[in-house]
Amino acid sequence: MKAVVYKGPREVAVEQVEDPRLEAPTDAIVKITSSAICGSDLHMYEGRTGAEPGTVFGHENMGIVQEVGDGVHGLSEGDRVVMPFNVACGFCRNCLAGRTGFCLTANPGFAGAAYGYVNMGPYRGGQAEYLRVPFADFNCLKLPEGTEHENDFITLADIFCTGYHATEMADVGTGDTVTVMGAGPVGLMAAHSALIRGASQVFSVDKVNDRLRLAEKIGATPIDYSQADPVEQIRDATGGEGTDKGIDAVGYQATVPEGEEQPAMVLNTLVEAVRPTGWLGVVGLYVTKDPGAPSEEASRGELLFAMGRMFEKGLRMGTGQADVKRYNRQLRDMIIAGRARPGMVVSKELPLDEAPQAYQHFDARDEGYSKVVLKPQQA
Ligand code: NAD
Ligand code: ZN
């Protein structure tokens, strides 16, 4: 089959690889109809992780069940399904507690597994014609048959659930004001989720114009941090207080307006922009190894974070990979009921063969490439 293969920094190719096959009775093979490119893929694409050349990318996957093992009971050939980016067993201590982002058995020696991702286990990605799904009963969420809502449902693999997870960690509730750093797909989904949960006002901070416009369309107040200090802009808009809650949807590759990276910049902005006793939800990625880091400490994931200020203000912080399965069924039903429209972030649908150019444009944050969905079944 054809698949998107990582070749080295800023290079992917569409190549022929071996077809996946059932390796355990609990596996399923899914024929991929949509597989999205994620900001998380860019960290690997840019050579800013330990990802090995040869990795097949793609952790945001949906499609049609093609084949199931003898031990799969709840799925049949022809079912339309979406898979969390996490691979989880469903029976370890963390999975039983709903913390499927930290499964203890799917990637032995490490808490957490995913498709097509560095350090996250041997699972091939779904930017390909077919995908092997382990523990398929647990990891496949069934969708209504047909093709309706394809761009909404693909966001259930990662970005919508991850944005929602950020609002859960930040404890966003009715009437809250919220700062969301980053208006990439994840930040936009966090803003959408905060408003669904009843936030009174959401500030979306970024500097990319079409992303800020999308934030506005979702119902957030856009804040362009290249125009003026975002902390001042947010304090001015909240009577000097700052927002109740804060979300990091940027991560360690945060940049100053001129483009230079400052890995702790977004965390430190949130510590200032959120009012004393506020809660922070950090889903933007932080790593333990960064070959391209701006300092020796940062290359080990040690950042200059304003811990003193955080303590002084009595802030709380939640971090980590999203436990997608905790939310995907509920958010699917919000989509079906017309109460959530996450598919609005999808800006391009392209055949698999166009992946190399799509990566280039998305990496450059070019206009029109806010979220690309690859369509392996399209020529
Ligand atoms: P993206 O790269 O498209 O978006 C990041 C946005 O942040 C960009 O629009 C950029 O302009 C903006 N930005 C950069 N520096 C900034 C600053 N100083 N202030 C405000 N905005 C700034 O990526 P995405 O797909 O939206 O993902 C966002 C982050 O979430 C990535 O780090 C990704 O790895 C991570 N992620 C985490 C999880 C999880 O489970 N925790 C899941 C998916 C993605
Ligand atoms: Zn993703």
Write the layout of secondary structure elements.
Blueprint (H helix, E strand, L loop, with lengths): L1 E7 L2 E6 L11 E9 L2 H7 L14 E9 L11 E4 L9 H4 L33 E4 L2 H4 L1 E2 L7 H4 L5 H11 L7 E5 L3 H12 L4 E6 L2 H10 L2 E4 L5 H8 L5 E6 L16 H9 E9 L13 H4 L7 H6 L3 E4 L8 H9 L11 E4 L3 H9 L8 E4 L4
Parallel strand pairs: 8-9, 8-11, 9-10, 11-12, 12-13, 14-15
Antiparallel strand pairs: 1-2, 3-4, 3-6, 3-15, 4-5, 5-7
Helix pairs in contact: 5-6, 8-9
The structure holds nicotinamide-adenine-dinucleotide (NAD) and zinc ion.
The site of nicotinamide-adenine-dinucleotide (NAD) has 33 residues, from helix 1, helix 6, strand 9 and helix 9.
Provide a quick synopsis of the model.
This protein has 13 helices and 15 strands.
Report what the structure shows:
The chain is α/β, with parallel strands linked by helices. It has two domains: 210 residues, Medium-chain alcohol dehydrogenases, catalytic domain (Quinone Oxidoreductase, Chain A, domain 1, Alpha-Beta Complex), CATH 3.90.180.10; 161 residues, NAD(P)-binding Rossmann-like Domain (Rossmann fold, 3-Layer(aba) Sandwich). Helices cover 26% and strands 22% of the residues. It is built from 13 helices and 15 strands. The strands form three sheets. Strands 3, 4, 5, 6, 7, 14 and 15 form a seven-stranded mixed sheet that branches. A six-stranded parallel sheet has the order 10-9-8-11-12-13, sandwiched between helices. α9 links the parallel β11 and β12. α8 packs parallel to α9. The longest helix is centred in the middle third of the chain and has 12 residues. It is globular. The model has no long low-confidence stretch (mean pLDDT 97).
